Amino acid sequence: MLLENSFYKILHKEVDGLSGRFTIAILPDCNVYEGHFPNDPVCPGVCNIETIKECAMLLTGKELRIKSIKQCRLTAIATPSVCPEVTVTVTATPAADNTYTVLASIKDDAQTYMEYKGIMEYPN
After folding, report:
1. Do residues 113 and 86 touch, judged by C-beta distance below 8 A?
2. Is 110 helix (H, G, I), strand (E, B) or coil?
3. Number of domains the chain contains
4. If 0-12 CB within 10 Å is exposed, 13-18 middle and 19+ buried, where does residue 65 land?
5. Residues 6+ apart with CB under 8 A from 64
6. Looking at the predicted structure, is the pLDDT value of residue 1 above 80?
7. Where does the ApeI dehydratase-like domain lie (predicted)?
8. For residue 104, what are the CA distances in angstroms to 13, 23, 28, 38?
9. Residue 92 domain boundaries
């Protein structure tokens, strides 16, 4: 499920090879907030991980899937009202057997919301 233009919208991107910085707007009208949580929306961690994956796909030009998550730290609560715009920083390093090691973070000027390290793979 792609979340671009439903959960978030890319406002600006800076790409240098397999590294990139994506400034995104978190869209408060996304239907995910109907269950997480009504009248007090909180960005679900799984949606943040999917956002990182989609940014990694833009960098690599490949349809990626998560093979393993080595580390995922939710360091602050992200909400559309507290952080309507954030920066997603992603680096994808080619590894063995059609995989990339992906390092990423989601943050704004005030704080970091998520730190991520994992392996993403693509089909042959």
Report:
1. yes
2. coil
3. 1
4. exposed
5. 53, 56, 57, 100, 120, 121, 122
6. no
7. 21-93
8. 14, 13, 23, 28
9. 8-121
The CATH number assigned to the domain holding 65 equals 3.10.129.10
- Residues paired with residue 95 on neighbouring β-strands, in sequence order: 99
Helix (H) or strand (E) holding 69: strand 65-74
The span from the CA of 22 to the CA of 3, in Å, is 14
The span from the CA of 106 to the CA of 100, in Å, is: 19
- Exposed / middle / buried, residue 117 (Cβ in 10 Å: 0-12, 13-18, 19+): middle
Domain-embedded: residue 36: yes
Look up residue 7 and give its amino acid. Answer: F
Task: Encode pLDDT of 73-115 as tens digits.
Answer: 999 999 999 999 999 999 999 999 999 999 999 999 999 999 9
Residue in the block written with tokens 């730190």:
115
Q: Is residue 3 part of a domain?
A: no
The answer to whether position 2 is within a domain reads no
